[in-house]
Specification:
Largest sheet: none
Distance between the termini: 41 Å
Helix content: over 70%
Radius of gyration: 21 Å
Number of strands: 0
């Protein structure tokens, strides 16, 4: 749960790179740091995957040892609760990341300036270990004012950007949990079901590539050229954050249907290869 919460918080922190790029007029550098943050969140997710696999193995091992055809309902109920708690931890992590957005923006701005001075991402990251820098970063934490956040909704944000981000986050939040859930529901194709998690996340990546990333990048470019205000980019970051939170909440409703669908697709793969 802690690992998933940290992963989602890092994902939200990556949104701040767009705003920091416009603020510092260093778009290419901010994109590089954005990719660094996204890669870090993906790397953390890689450690989450075997943890979920261990939970699934513990749920199915007694049934497989007893040579039964299906996992008992009470075991499935316990596993369902475990998956929902892990997904809920991701929602909490997303909310924590939202409250830390001012700190992330400050962190990115400092990182961009530090990278320009040292010409090394590694040295810029190591610089964060300086106690004085850490105190400066922590002092930048400010809770968002509700009145200010509500004022951002007046800015023109493309609806497809918000809807796309909502869908992407809902898929990402349950991609791996649903696949392992399916492996518990369908013992006959449990390895295939677990392997389908990559396809589910791949669909989320395609949705992000086509609907979210290009639109947000266009808005950033327009802000740099003076066609949009800095406040509109701040509104975009807030909009992406809010839809990310809503997406992780929506994922609770999609967890079991997603597992059911993956289970049936896994059966198609298994029986197709048997023929």
């Amino acid at each position: 749960m802690a690992l998933n919460g940290i992963t989602q918080a890092i994902q939200i922190g990556a949104y701040a790179a767009r705003y920091a790029g416009v603020q510092t007029h260093r778009i290419a550098t901010s994109i590089s740091l954005f990719n660094l943050f996204v890669t870090a969140s993906r790397l953390a997710a890689l450690f989450l995957t075997p943890s979920l696999g261990a939970l699934a193995d513990n749920a199915t091992r007694p049934t497989v040892a007893a040579k039964l055809s299906a996992v008992p309902p009470d075991v499935i109920g316990t596993f369902d609760l475990q998956m929902r708690l892990i997904v809920a931890a991701g929602t909490i992590g997303t909310c924590v990341g939202a409250f830390l957005l001012p700190m992330f923006i400050y962190l990115f701005a400092r990182g961009i300036r530090s990278f320009e001075r040292k010409n090394s991402v590694l040295q810029a990251v190591v610089r964060l270990g300086d106690p004085r820098v850490m105190m400066d970063v922590l002092s930048s934490v400010r809770l968002p004012e509700i009145r200010t956040v509500l004022s951002y909704t007046r800015e023109a944000i493309p609806p497809k950007l918000l809807i796309g981000n909502l869908v992407v986050m809902a898929i990402y939040a349950i991609g791996v949990p649903s696949a392992y859930y399916a492996s518990v529901l369908n013992l006959d194709a449990r390895t295939t079901a677990a392997g389908l998690s990559g396809i589910v996340n791949g669909i989320g990546t395609l949705a992000f590539t086509f609907f979210v990333d290009p639109t947000s990048a266009l808005m950033v470019d327009q802000a740099v050229k003076g066609e949009r205000s800095l406040n509109s980019i701040r509104a975009m970051v807030v909009g992406l954050t809010v839809t990310a939170i809503c997406g992780t909440i929506l994922s609770q409703l999609l967890l079991w249907p997603g597992a059911w669908a993956i289970s049936h697709v896994a059966s198609l793969f298994v029986h197709g290869f048997r023929r």
